[in-house]
Specification:
Layout (H helix, E strand, L loop, with lengths): L5 H19 L3 H4 L5 H5 L13 H33 L11 H20 L10 H10 L3 E3 L4 E5 L11 H15 L6 E5 L10 H17 L5 E6 L6 H4 L5 H8 L3 E6 L2 H8 L3 H8 L7 E7 H10 L3
Parallel strand pairs: 3-4
Antiparallel strand pairs: 1-2, 2-3, 4-6, 5-6
Length: about 300
Amino acid sequence: MDSIPNVELARCLCEELSDRISEVDEGLLAVYPADAYPDLLDENAQRHSYSYLPPAAETIEKAIEERVGPEGRANYHKLVLAILIRDKDESVCPLRLPSSIRILIEETKRRILGDVEKQAADSFRLGHEPFVKSFALCRYRLLPCGSEFVEYSDGIARNTLLKGGAGQLFGGLWFFIRRGLRFRPWVAAHWDRRLFRQFNPADFDRTYERIVELLELNTHLQGHIGASWWYDPALESLSPEIAFLRKVPEQHGAALFRVGENDAATKDAVRLAPKRSKARREGWYNPTVYLSAWARQDMIRWMKKRGK
Protein backbone atom coordinates (compact mmCIF):
# COMPACT_ATOMS: atom_id res chain seq x y z
CA MET A 1 0.00 0.00 0.00
CA ASP A 2 2.80 2.45 0.92
CA SER A 3 4.37 2.04 -2.51
CA ILE A 4 1.18 3.05 -4.34
CA PRO A 5 1.23 6.75 -5.35
CA ASN A 6 -1.34 8.99 -3.69
CA VAL A 7 -2.88 9.80 -7.06
CA GLU A 8 -3.58 6.12 -7.73
CA LEU A 9 -5.02 5.57 -4.26
CA ALA A 10 -7.23 8.63 -4.72
CA ARG A 11 -8.41 7.40 -8.12
CA CYS A 12 -9.46 4.03 -6.66
CA LEU A 13 -11.15 5.76 -3.75
CA CYS A 14 -13.09 8.02 -6.12
CA GLU A 15 -14.55 4.98 -7.87
CA GLU A 16 -15.39 3.25 -4.61
CA LEU A 17 -17.06 6.30 -3.06
CA SER A 18 -18.99 7.11 -6.24
CA ASP A 19 -20.40 3.57 -6.21
CA ARG A 20 -21.20 3.83 -2.52
CA ILE A 21 -23.10 7.08 -3.03
CA SER A 22 -24.98 5.81 -6.10
CA GLU A 23 -26.14 2.71 -4.24
CA VAL A 24 -27.98 4.97 -1.79
CA ASP A 25 -29.13 7.67 -4.24
CA GLU A 26 -28.51 6.97 -7.91
CA GLY A 27 -29.18 10.53 -9.02
CA LEU A 28 -27.27 12.45 -6.36
CA LEU A 29 -24.02 12.90 -8.29
CA ALA A 30 -25.93 14.06 -11.36
CA VAL A 31 -27.60 16.82 -9.36
CA TYR A 32 -24.49 17.68 -7.31
CA PRO A 33 -21.48 16.60 -9.42
CA ALA A 34 -18.52 16.13 -7.11
CA ASP A 35 -16.06 16.86 -9.95
CA ALA A 36 -17.44 20.41 -10.14
CA TYR A 37 -17.17 21.00 -6.40
CA PRO A 38 -13.47 22.00 -6.40
CA ASP A 39 -14.24 24.87 -8.79
CA LEU A 40 -16.97 25.98 -6.41
CA LEU A 41 -14.51 25.99 -3.51
CA ASP A 42 -12.02 28.08 -5.47
CA GLU A 43 -14.56 30.68 -6.55
CA ASN A 44 -13.23 34.04 -5.29
CA ALA A 45 -10.86 32.08 -3.06
CA GLN A 46 -7.95 34.49 -3.52
CA ARG A 47 -10.00 37.24 -1.88
CA HIS A 48 -10.42 35.25 1.31
CA SER A 49 -8.48 33.17 3.81
CA TYR A 50 -8.08 29.43 3.41
CA SER A 51 -11.11 28.79 5.65
CA TYR A 52 -13.57 30.66 3.44
CA LEU A 53 -16.36 28.51 2.04
CA PRO A 54 -18.85 30.01 -0.43
CA PRO A 55 -22.50 30.05 0.69
CA ALA A 56 -23.33 27.59 -2.09
CA ALA A 57 -21.15 24.96 -0.38
CA GLU A 58 -23.26 25.11 2.77
CA THR A 59 -26.43 24.96 0.68
CA ILE A 60 -25.19 21.83 -1.10
CA GLU A 61 -24.13 20.22 2.17
CA LYS A 62 -27.58 20.77 3.68
CA ALA A 63 -29.37 19.49 0.57
CA ILE A 64 -27.23 16.35 0.39
CA GLU A 65 -27.75 15.56 4.05
CA GLU A 66 -31.51 15.92 3.61
CA ARG A 67 -31.36 13.40 0.74
CA VAL A 68 -28.96 10.79 2.09
CA GLY A 69 -28.34 11.59 5.75
CA PRO A 70 -25.08 12.28 7.63
CA GLU A 71 -23.35 9.16 6.28
CA GLY A 72 -24.16 10.12 2.70
CA ARG A 73 -23.02 13.68 3.29
CA ALA A 74 -19.76 12.36 4.71
CA ASN A 75 -19.23 10.08 1.69
CA TYR A 76 -19.79 13.04 -0.64
CA HIS A 77 -17.20 15.13 1.17
CA LYS A 78 -14.79 12.18 1.23
CA LEU A 79 -15.25 11.90 -2.52
CA VAL A 80 -14.42 15.59 -2.96
CA LEU A 81 -11.22 15.14 -0.94
CA ALA A 82 -10.24 12.16 -3.09
CA ILE A 83 -10.95 14.16 -6.26
CA LEU A 84 -8.76 17.00 -5.01
CA ILE A 85 -5.87 14.64 -4.29
CA ARG A 86 -6.36 12.96 -7.66
CA ASP A 87 -6.53 16.16 -9.70
CA LYS A 88 -4.68 18.96 -7.89
CA ASP A 89 -0.92 19.21 -7.99
CA GLU A 90 1.81 21.74 -7.34
CA SER A 91 0.89 23.71 -10.46
CA VAL A 92 -2.08 25.26 -8.61
CA CYS A 93 0.16 26.61 -5.84
CA PRO A 94 1.17 30.28 -6.24
CA LEU A 95 4.52 29.61 -4.58
CA ARG A 96 7.63 27.67 -5.54
CA LEU A 97 8.03 24.79 -3.10
CA PRO A 98 11.21 23.36 -1.58
CA SER A 99 11.63 19.59 -1.55
CA SER A 100 11.22 19.48 2.24
CA ILE A 101 7.67 20.83 1.94
CA ARG A 102 6.90 18.68 -1.11
CA ILE A 103 7.66 15.61 0.99
CA LEU A 104 5.31 16.80 3.75
CA ILE A 105 2.57 17.49 1.21
CA GLU A 106 2.65 13.88 0.02
CA GLU A 107 2.71 12.62 3.61
CA THR A 108 -0.26 14.83 4.44
CA LYS A 109 -2.23 13.61 1.44
CA ARG A 110 -1.53 10.01 2.49
CA ARG A 111 -2.80 10.77 5.99
CA ILE A 112 -5.96 12.39 4.61
CA LEU A 113 -6.63 9.36 2.41
CA GLY A 114 -6.24 7.18 5.50
CA ASP A 115 -8.61 9.38 7.49
CA VAL A 116 -11.30 8.88 4.84
CA GLU A 117 -11.65 5.26 5.93
CA LYS A 118 -10.91 5.67 9.64
CA GLN A 119 -12.83 8.71 10.82
CA ALA A 120 -16.51 8.98 11.70
CA ALA A 121 -19.06 10.73 9.49
CA ASP A 122 -19.20 13.74 11.81
CA SER A 123 -15.58 14.56 10.94
CA PHE A 124 -16.54 15.27 7.31
CA ARG A 125 -18.68 18.37 7.59
CA LEU A 126 -18.07 22.03 6.81
CA GLY A 127 -18.43 23.03 10.45
CA HIS A 128 -15.51 20.81 11.48
CA GLU A 129 -12.31 22.86 11.45
CA PRO A 130 -9.85 20.01 10.73
CA PHE A 131 -11.96 19.01 7.72
CA VAL A 132 -11.88 22.58 6.37
CA LYS A 133 -8.10 22.53 6.79
CA SER A 134 -7.96 19.24 4.87
CA PHE A 135 -9.89 20.88 2.03
CA ALA A 136 -7.34 23.71 2.05
CA LEU A 137 -4.33 21.38 2.18
CA CYS A 138 -5.57 19.38 -0.81
CA ARG A 139 -5.99 22.63 -2.77
CA TYR A 140 -2.54 23.98 -1.78
CA ARG A 141 -4.20 26.85 0.10
CA LEU A 142 -2.37 25.60 3.19
CA LEU A 143 1.11 24.13 3.10
CA PRO A 144 2.35 21.67 5.74
CA CYS A 145 5.64 22.75 7.26
CA GLY A 146 5.89 20.46 10.29
CA SER A 147 4.56 21.93 13.52
CA GLU A 148 2.23 24.28 11.67
CA PHE A 149 0.59 24.93 8.33
CA VAL A 150 1.26 28.16 6.48
CA GLU A 151 -0.94 30.16 4.16
CA TYR A 152 0.11 32.53 1.40
CA SER A 153 -1.36 35.59 3.06
CA ASP A 154 -2.36 39.13 2.24
CA GLY A 155 -0.19 40.00 5.21
CA ILE A 156 -0.54 42.42 8.06
CA ALA A 157 -3.53 44.73 8.32
CA ARG A 158 -2.27 48.27 8.83
CA ASN A 159 -4.71 48.89 11.67
CA THR A 160 -2.88 46.22 13.68
CA LEU A 161 -0.24 48.83 14.47
CA LEU A 162 -2.93 51.04 16.01
CA LYS A 163 -4.22 48.45 18.47
CA GLY A 164 -1.39 48.74 20.99
CA GLY A 165 -1.13 52.48 21.46
CA ALA A 166 1.36 55.05 20.21
CA GLY A 167 4.38 52.99 21.21
CA GLN A 168 3.25 50.08 19.06
CA LEU A 169 2.42 52.38 16.15
CA PHE A 170 5.81 54.09 16.01
CA GLY A 171 7.74 50.96 16.94
CA GLY A 172 5.92 49.03 14.25
CA LEU A 173 6.57 51.65 11.60
CA TRP A 174 10.26 51.64 12.49
CA PHE A 175 10.30 47.84 12.25
CA PHE A 176 8.94 48.02 8.69
CA ILE A 177 11.06 50.98 7.57
CA ARG A 178 14.33 49.69 9.01
CA ARG A 179 13.95 46.34 7.25
CA GLY A 180 12.47 47.70 4.04
CA LEU A 181 9.36 45.57 4.52
CA ARG A 182 5.95 45.79 2.92
CA PHE A 183 2.68 44.90 4.62
CA ARG A 184 2.05 42.13 2.08
CA PRO A 185 2.52 39.34 1.19
CA TRP A 186 3.66 37.15 4.09
CA VAL A 187 3.10 33.52 4.99
CA ALA A 188 0.69 33.16 7.89
CA ALA A 189 0.91 30.34 10.43
CA HIS A 190 -2.03 28.13 11.37
CA TRP A 191 -1.95 25.37 13.94
CA ASP A 192 -3.99 22.17 13.87
CA ARG A 193 -4.56 19.83 16.78
CA ARG A 194 -3.50 16.91 14.58
CA LEU A 195 0.02 18.35 14.85
CA PHE A 196 0.21 18.02 18.64
CA ARG A 197 3.04 15.48 18.53
CA GLN A 198 5.23 18.16 16.93
CA PHE A 199 4.40 20.79 19.51
CA ASN A 200 7.91 21.14 20.93
CA PRO A 201 10.92 23.45 20.45
CA ALA A 202 12.95 21.06 18.27
CA ASP A 203 10.13 20.41 15.81
CA PHE A 204 9.25 24.11 15.64
CA ASP A 205 12.88 24.87 14.79
CA ARG A 206 12.68 22.37 11.93
CA THR A 207 9.43 24.01 10.86
CA TYR A 208 11.09 27.43 10.75
CA GLU A 209 13.92 25.96 8.65
CA ARG A 210 11.40 24.75 6.05
CA ILE A 211 9.75 28.16 6.04
CA VAL A 212 13.14 29.80 5.43
CA GLU A 213 13.60 27.48 2.44
CA LEU A 214 10.19 28.61 1.19
CA LEU A 215 11.12 32.28 1.65
CA GLU A 216 14.39 31.83 -0.21
CA LEU A 217 12.54 30.41 -3.22
CA ASN A 218 9.92 33.18 -3.14
CA THR A 219 11.76 36.44 -2.66
CA HIS A 220 8.59 38.55 -2.75
CA LEU A 221 7.46 37.06 0.57
CA GLN A 222 8.14 39.42 3.46
CA GLY A 223 8.41 36.80 6.18
CA HIS A 224 6.37 34.72 8.61
CA ILE A 225 3.46 35.93 10.73
CA GLY A 226 1.28 34.30 13.34
CA ALA A 227 -1.50 35.65 15.54
CA SER A 228 -2.34 33.83 18.76
CA TRP A 229 -2.66 34.08 22.52
CA TRP A 230 0.48 31.90 22.51
CA TYR A 231 2.58 34.99 21.87
CA ASP A 232 1.26 36.83 24.94
CA PRO A 233 4.26 37.91 27.08
CA ALA A 234 2.14 37.18 30.18
CA LEU A 235 2.73 33.47 29.54
CA GLU A 236 6.43 33.87 30.35
CA SER A 237 5.70 33.19 34.02
CA LEU A 238 2.28 31.56 33.76
CA SER A 239 3.05 28.90 31.13
CA PRO A 240 6.83 28.91 30.61
CA GLU A 241 6.65 25.57 28.76
CA ILE A 242 5.15 27.31 25.71
CA ALA A 243 7.08 30.59 25.96
CA PHE A 244 9.47 29.30 23.26
CA LEU A 245 6.75 30.04 20.68
CA ARG A 246 7.25 33.75 21.30
CA LYS A 247 10.84 33.86 22.48
CA VAL A 248 12.61 32.14 19.58
CA PRO A 249 11.26 34.53 16.90
CA GLU A 250 11.46 37.57 19.19
CA GLN A 251 15.05 36.89 20.23
CA HIS A 252 15.98 36.75 16.55
CA GLY A 253 14.37 39.93 15.31
CA ALA A 254 10.61 39.34 15.24
CA ALA A 255 8.27 42.17 16.20
CA LEU A 256 5.32 41.61 18.51
CA PHE A 257 2.07 43.55 18.08
CA ARG A 258 -0.80 43.51 20.54
CA VAL A 259 -4.07 42.68 18.74
CA GLY A 260 -6.46 42.37 21.68
CA GLU A 261 -8.80 40.01 23.49
CA ASN A 262 -11.58 37.91 22.01
CA ASP A 263 -13.87 35.14 23.20
CA ALA A 264 -12.35 32.46 20.98
CA ALA A 265 -8.83 33.12 22.24
CA THR A 266 -10.00 33.16 25.86
CA LYS A 267 -11.83 29.86 25.47
CA ASP A 268 -8.84 28.25 23.78
CA ALA A 269 -6.31 29.57 26.29
CA VAL A 270 -8.09 28.23 29.38
CA ARG A 271 -9.37 24.97 27.89
CA LEU A 272 -7.68 22.00 29.55
CA ALA A 273 -5.31 24.40 31.33
CA PRO A 274 -6.11 24.53 35.08
CA LYS A 275 -3.38 27.05 35.90
CA ARG A 276 -4.44 29.55 33.21
CA SER A 277 -8.10 28.93 33.99
CA LYS A 278 -7.52 29.69 37.69
CA ALA A 279 -5.55 32.85 36.84
CA ARG A 280 -8.39 33.95 34.57
CA ARG A 281 -11.01 33.38 37.29
CA GLU A 282 -8.92 35.30 39.80
CA GLY A 283 -8.69 38.22 37.40
CA TRP A 284 -4.95 38.50 36.90
CA TYR A 285 -4.75 36.88 33.47
CA ASN A 286 -6.73 37.94 30.42
CA PRO A 287 -5.75 35.92 27.34
CA THR A 288 -4.60 38.41 24.74
CA VAL A 289 -3.83 37.84 21.08
CA TYR A 290 -0.50 39.11 19.79
CA LEU A 291 0.79 39.05 16.25
CA SER A 292 4.37 37.92 15.73
CA ALA A 293 6.04 39.20 12.55
CA TRP A 294 9.38 37.62 11.69
CA ALA A 295 10.99 39.27 8.68
CA ARG A 296 12.55 37.11 5.97
CA GLN A 297 16.06 38.53 6.45
CA ASP A 298 15.90 37.88 10.20
CA MET A 299 14.71 34.30 9.65
CA ILE A 300 17.48 33.67 7.13
CA ARG A 301 20.04 35.11 9.56
CA TRP A 302 18.67 32.85 12.33
CA MET A 303 19.09 29.80 10.11
CA LYS A 304 22.66 30.73 9.15
CA LYS A 305 23.56 31.08 12.83
CA ARG A 306 22.39 27.51 13.27
CA GLY A 307 24.88 26.46 10.61
CA LYS A 308 22.20 25.47 8.13
